[in-house]
Amino acid sequence: MDHVPGGSFCVTSVDGIINWAHANSLWPLTFGTACCAIEVMMAAGASRHDLARFGAEVARPSPRQADLLVVAGTVVKRLAPRLRTLYEQMAEPRYVIATGSCAISGGPFMYNSYSTVRGADQIIPVDVYVPGCPPRPEAFLYGLLTLQKLIKEGESIRRPYVRRKPVLSVLPAGMTADQIRSELAALLTRDSTVDLSGEYVQNVQAGGSKQ
Amino acid sequence: MTTSPITLADRIAAAPADASSLATQEYFVNMGPQHPSTHGVLRLLVKLDGETVREVIPVVGYIHRGIEKMGEYLTYRKFIHLSDRLDYLSAITNNWVVCMAVEKAAGIETNDRIQTIRTLCAELQRIQSHQLWWGVFGMDLGAFTAFLYGFRDREMVTDIFEETTGARLTMNYIQPGGLMYDIHPDFVKGVKKFIEYFKPKLAEYEQLVSGNVIIQARLRGIGVMSSESAISLGTTGPVLRGSGVEYDLRKTEPYGVYSKVQFDVPVGRIGDCWDRYWVRMEEMRQSIRIIEQLIDNIPEGKHMMIKPTAKIKLPEGLSYSQAETARGILGVLIVSDGSDKPYRIHLRSPNFNNLWSVTAMGPGLRIADLVAILSSIDIVVPDIDR
Amino acid sequence: MTDDGEDRKVTNAIDATVWQVKTLATRTLEAVPDSPWLVAGYLLLGIVAVASLVAGLGIVLIYAERKIAAHFQCRLGPMRVGWHGLLQTVADTIKLLLKEDIVPARADKLLHLMAPFLSLLATVLVLVVIPYSPTLQIADVNIGVLYVSAVGGFGILGILVAGWSSNNKWSLLGAMRAGAQIISYEISATIALLAVVLFSGSLQLSAVVLSQSQGWWIWRAHGIGFVAFMIFLIASVAEINRTPFDIAEGESELTGGFHTEYSGMRFAFFFLSEFVNMFVVAAITATLFLGGWMPFHIGNFHSLNAIMDLVPPVIWFLGKTSFLIFVIMWFRWTFPRMRVDQLMKLEWKILLPIGFVNLGAAAIAVLFNLYFFPSH
Amino acid sequence: MTGEDLVSVIMSIEARAKPREKCAMPSAMIPVDALPGFMRSMRDDPRLSFDMLCTHTAVDWLGENRFELVYVLYSTKHRHYVTVSTSIPRDKPEASSVSSIWRIAEWQEREVYDLMGVLYSGHPDLRRMFLEDDWVGFPLRKDYKDTFMLGLPE
């Protein structure tokens, strides 16, 4: 917003349109590993819950064309590098929703398992977590709306090296929409950005600027 | 004679793509782990000659969570919730198999009410699973609308389950010695309503997909598996029955109250994709038949025969029990050392054994046929990997 | 541009306005001396007009497709963005335009960047010759039918280039499938076109439309027209890679086919060209077999013809085109996908022989005036 | 055929076979060197015709320093089951493959190799199944140690 001197109004309203477009056109990648895929990818997209209402039904099989990676299910050690590749193949701006206990923390497979990765956020940055085992389709829709809010109130295009902290999609009961909104805004403005510029930038610069 | 293990790279090198010929060139492509038609994170390494499949090498393990190892650390009661997450589309049947194994070994008696409700739920689950399969099958062949129709009707069953068990997918409903809860007062009403709703919908399914010329052309004579080869490949469930072998545990070794109900076991003729498709469609009808016979005759009784907190210890020894899930036979082999945890628990999963028939059916066909075959086997990847 | 608008009877307000504007523009152009700036301005205006037409078409058609599909499938479709999701496609377009444009590391960079434009170009070029109404036609070339089939076949180039340059086996496979498919079906489509050319005796699209003033060719030729119509519709749907013939992108087989490696704006161009293609195919089919802008006339039933004439030709044209687009969408959400060899069999063993026999029958019918209401 | 009859028929094929103790089904325990021939006659003998290998797995008896290989067989013709088990030493875990008798054995043995580390001679494609090729150790063994694995907190 401060890039164009004296043009803040113009740029912010353009930003608003861009955010609006990004938020309302989240095309998911057809990717699901376990039980959550049935609930959040299939049942949520099917007739009763209808993901299409939010413009998110255009499931793309190719990561290049997808905006939203839904980690639906357990991530194990063998899948981890592939998941990372998938994320890297996606074009910016890209968003990640981790659904279900497995993708949040390893869930029922956290203990005594020699191969389950304890949470998708150990591999890729996650924007929104949707708890449940598996979450109901409604819960996923709520997670999607949370992500939309996040995008609408955030920046239009993510700055490199700066990454937002993830937000839990389920907030305590009895909250109004305004409270949620103000909480999200506070979260975003006050302490929700993690500045990775120090070490990360140095690493990138040291590693050469090859494309 | 000793055998030294090899790696995947060795395996590919052992089946070199023939690039020498001037006319055509063979090449490997990766189907998966992220591919719309592998239903999850299965990876198929396919050697192709143009469009023709020369060899299929399934690579599994992208969701191997080590459930068998985890089972050794959990009590029998705690292990049941993991069985939900094997083949999540047959969660109740999976619960039942584990409970059956435990009950048989520990000598826990159950009453008729419990068995009837278990049977009812297992059959509802079979319908639900086949509805999903039908939808996904349509989607894999390009008929996207079928997917949504299948899911629309599936939600009805999901509602019934949610009412009674409290969960939509991973229900953890059947416990050793009984059921987690008694059925909901509206259960019978809901099931009857669903049966009335679903019967005409089956005709709609036939109209939309089965009767379609393109579907017929895509399925008839594709992926033929003889009964000998199906048996040797260890397939079970609709895949084996599609190949003409009448092996259905509900009929051959009735458990639950299957011995008291009338139903037929549909069997295919030549073992192509169409036969497997037809067997599943017919199974839905038979399941409705079973439910209709049982729904009005649920006996009175307790829903749990032992204290839910009672420690279950199995006598020392080896036991194996199995039941027919929607995809085939799930077997549970428990080796007990007398404690309340299994010394070794092995799961004979239907999908693991069914999957490998792809390697026999695939070669010589086209990629599109491979998709149809994969869909007609109806795999659930987490059950393969466990 | 043939300027015979003045000879033609202009019976309705829309066409009268269009004709007046056109005449005014032509006279103004003739009045001012030739100058390169004027030509440039004229070109720019044309580009803006075509671009907005294409974009508008794309937005409307994609929205229609999503809504129609949703209602076929007992869903609601886009609901949240604008009234009943009207702005959904706008949001998608903005997003796609702003999305990162990825060129794979080992791709053929130049070709990879070019392919989407080639694909769209072929589509846009066909829009030029379609007669939308008696007066609204950008260029009424005298070999219109030939032009349509020639330029329409050019679309394959974009797909082939896209598949080849992506350096991805799935893309290549998809492109090769598309190549085989489009080239094969081109033949049937052209043969079906020829039947109409025989009946109307002209390759000019406006003349083809005028030749249907006694009745549309679909019913006027004792079934020959209908058979040709069916062949042309099937072949055209195959040419634009829509289900049941979408083997080139077949999501469940090839994860997206030739456009697997495309992201952002370039993918949007493929997406757009698919939908504009659908419009083009529907428009051409409507023009050739359903009389284009020609109202529903039956030979000498003058009172009926007069009533039909009350509806402006543009509305007739759009109505027929929309109906055909709806039918094509209906196909997509009903049929499963065909296999590549079945597709070839359908073309070479079924459509093509029928097409040839039909063409022969058409020739005989024309020779002996064997159709309803022959003009001489 | 009852369980006793089945066991006696099996005994007539392989004299060294004896029922496995503490097994709920008809069972036979055989020495490992008899495995390939015994399994082949189990399939081909018309009285038995065990044409399906239901499951195959291994049990790690750490205290007795042996692996027990368990095969559950089924006959679609006679509709009977049998459990065949054999023991192999833990420090030299080798057995001959039965993949030429039942095709599914190829993959079931691969799974056992992957998780238990049993080597099968004559196996056409013995490699890791669920784990990566560079995985160290065999997780289902009782003495498997892994720094990654978390124990359940008490």
Question: Could you give a quick summary of the protein structure above?
Answer:
Chain A is globular. Chain A is α/β, with parallel strands linked by helices. Chain A contains 7 helices and 6 strands.
Model description:
The complex is a heterotetramer of chains A (211), B (386), C (376) and D (154). Chain B is α+β, with helices and mostly antiparallel strands. Chain B is 48% helix and 13% strand. Chain B has two domains: 8-59, no CATH class; 67-385, Cytochrome-c3 Hydrogenase, chain B, CATH 1.10.645. In chain B, helix 12 (273-295) packs parallel to helix 15. With 376 residues, chain C is mainly alpha-helical. Chain C has two domains: 24-98; 104-367, no CATH class. The two termini of chain C are 28 Å apart. Chain D has a domain at 3-97: Beta Polymerase, domain 2 (2-Layer Sandwich), CATH 3.30.460.80. Helices cover 21% and strands 24% of the residues of chain D. Chain D has a four-stranded mixed β-sheet. The longest helix of chain D is centred in the C-terminal third of the chain and has 12 residues, at 105-116. The termini of chain D are far apart. The chains are: A alpha/beta (211), B alpha+beta (386), C mainly alpha (376), D alpha/beta (154). The A-B interface holds A 29-35, 37-39, 42-43, 46-48, 61, 63, 73-74, 76, 78-79, 82, 86, 108-109, 111-116, 133-134, 136 and B 33-36, 40-41, 61-67, 69-70, 73-74, 81-82, 84-85, 88-89, 132, 147-148, 151-152, 154-155, 158, 168-170, 381-382.
